[in-house]
Amino acid sequence: MKAMIFSAGLGTRFKPWSDIHPEALALINGKSLLQRNVEYLQQYGIRDVIVNVHHFAEQIINAVEKNKGWGSNIIISDEREELLETGGGLLKAKNLFTPGEKFITCNVDILTDLDLNKLISFHNRHHPLISFAVTNRKTSRYLLFDENNRLCGWRNTKTNEEKIVLPSPQGRGQGVRREKAYSCVVVFEYDIFRLMPFTGKFSLIDVYLKLAADHFILGYDHTGDRLVDVGKPENITIAESVFP
Q1: What angle do CA 68, 70, 76 make, to 5 degrees?
Q2: Could you tell me which CATH class the domain 2-242 is placed in?
Q3: How far apart are CA 4 and CA 143, in angstroms?
């Protein structure tokens, strides 16, 4: 199984570090976020890893070459001409994946001890197009799920914006719509490339919401596992206390 680590972002929440470095090379207890995610995937036997680059791309490429991929086979997906966000970045990397094989994506600025074997097992058991990890933590933007963990919408609690993409069954009113926070660790079937509803620059969240009505997309709840969004500089201290 291959994986992709999204590492191309501008790291705007990570200033002033990101003024002269890519967020992916920010250090947590002496190891970069990129190295930590590469080693995280290695724990589950995943050593073929695609890394997309844009912001200070050369620094990431040099770090990968200098460290020989930290023991993994790292393939660079070059977005220096245009930053494509997560959805566009995934679509651009299509030819780097193995046709017909499922794969995993994760974000370089998220550290977690989610058990990938459990996520993959969940995916294999239920046979969705996409399975992604979620938790009950607080956020301002939630994905919404029905009682069967199927994605049915999205909600921004700050703006009160809401998108319902999977109507409740007849006679059940609003049904059950559980709010869950996205963990940015995802299992995709390769068929996602055939079904991609957008081109150019777009986010994976937009893909999920566009496809959810006609395709089976599930949330896997891993509440209780450690997870830190290191995209916020104030969380570096937290990450260093949680991930030695």
Answers
A1: 65
A2: alpha beta
A3: 22
For 144-160, how does the pLDDT look when each residue is reduced to its tens digit (9 = 90+)? 999 999 999 999 999 99
Q: What share of the chain is helix, strand, coil (3-state, %, to 5)?
A: 30, 30, 40
CA distance 137 to 40: 22
Listed residue (176, 128, 129, 188) closest to 152, CA to CA: 176
Residue whose token pair is 């020989």: 68
| Domain edges within the chain | 2-242
86 three-class SS:
helix
Tokens 């009950």 appear where?
A: 136
What spatial distance separates the first Cα and last Cα of the chain, rounded to whole Å? 27
Q: Please count the other Cβ atoms lying within 10 Å of the Cβ belonging to residue 158.
A: 8
> Length of the chain in residues, anyone?
244
What pLDDT, in 10s, does the model give residues 42-64? Answer: 999 999 999 999 999 999 999 99
Q: In 10 A of CB 177, how many CB atoms? A: 17
Q: Is 196 exposed, middle or buried (0-12, 13-18, 19+ CB in 10 A)?
A: middle
Give the Cβ contact number of residue 28 at 10 Å.
Answer: 21
Distance CA 185, CA 111 (A): 10
Least confident of 100-109, 126-135, 177-186, 230-239: 230-239
In whole angstroms, give the CA distance from residue 76 to residue 56. 13
- Alpha-carbon span 2 to 18, nearest angstrom: 28
